[in-house]
């Protein structure tokens, strides 16, 4: 089977119904919360990140393209470049909501503060989920850039783009990227690059797990490869 092939619509519907059912059950549990500082412990918060990962995998099967086992940022970045594109659709919005929410949490709480204290509530599973959320979101934004002139944004896409823009602007206003000049383009492609930059900085700032630093270096290299590709495009 082609590992990059999209799932058949009936399979997507089945998975979507199953995930919605799980979400309903999760919401009914009294200890469930999206608060990282949940007094009931980290399991509800961690499970929400795995839910987001499940949604992401429906629309982008990044698993065969991660090569995380190599621990080599260059190999990982090159593999991510081979990931299939993310097509615009009504269904992918659900996955994008989780991807954007994942980014909003460290931005809201303080990217550098969360990075230094991840061991208390942000597990490795969160970071693995966030990696795939970052790739999905950036690829969807790149897809918008390519197609928006031919196909206008619908209401859901417009709201999603606005939310991502707000998150990125907030992050760039408070995060110290340790560069002389940080310029962010607010068009869809620029936002996609910004999303990768924020997550790369977050992962590289981790002080608990070396593996997370490797993920940060990999996203940074992936972003550099995308920039090189964009610069080669005509016009």
TrEMBL record:
The keyword DNA damage does not apply. GO terms for cellular component: chromatin; nucleus. Keywords: Metal-binding, Nucleus, Repeat, Zinc, Zinc-finger. The keyword Metal-binding applies. One of its GO terms (molecular function) is DNA-binding transcription factor activity, RNA polymerase II-specific. It is found in: Nucleus. It comes from the Eukaryota. PANTHER family: C2H2-TYPE DOMAIN-CONTAINING PROTEIN (PTHR40626:SF10), MIP31509P (PTHR40626). This is Transcription factor domain-containing protein. It comes from Fusarium falciforme.
């Amino acid at each position: 089977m082609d590992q990059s092939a999209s799932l058949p619509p009936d399979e997507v519907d089945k998975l979507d119904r199953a995930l919605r059912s799980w979400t309903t059950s999760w919401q009914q549990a009294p200890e469930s919360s999206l608060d990282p500082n949940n007094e009931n412990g980290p399991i509800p918060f961690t499970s929400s990140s795995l839910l987001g990962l499940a949604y992401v995998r429906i629309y982008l099967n990044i698993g065969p393209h991660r090569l995380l086992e190599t621990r080599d940022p260059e190999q990982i970045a090159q593999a991510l470049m081979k990931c299939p594109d993310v097509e615009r659709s009504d269904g992918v919005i659900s996955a994008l909501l989780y991807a954007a929410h994942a980014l909003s949490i460290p931005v809201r709480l303080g990217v550098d503060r969360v990075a230094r204290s991840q061991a208390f509530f942000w597990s490795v599973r969160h970071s693995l989920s966030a990696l795939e959320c970052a790739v999905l979101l950036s690829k969807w934004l790149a897809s918008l850039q390519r197609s928006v002139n031919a196909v206008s944004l619908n209401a859901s896409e417009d709201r999603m783009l606005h939310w991502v823009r707000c998150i990125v602007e907030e992050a760039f206003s408070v995060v110290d990227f340790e560069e002389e000049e940080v310029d962010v383009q607010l068009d869809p492609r620029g936002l996609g690059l910004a999303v990768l930059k924020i997550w790369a900085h977050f992962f590289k700032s981790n002080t608990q797990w070396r593996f997370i630093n490797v993920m940060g270096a990999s996203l940074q290299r992936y972003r550099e490869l995308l920039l090189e590709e964009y610069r080669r495009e005509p016009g």
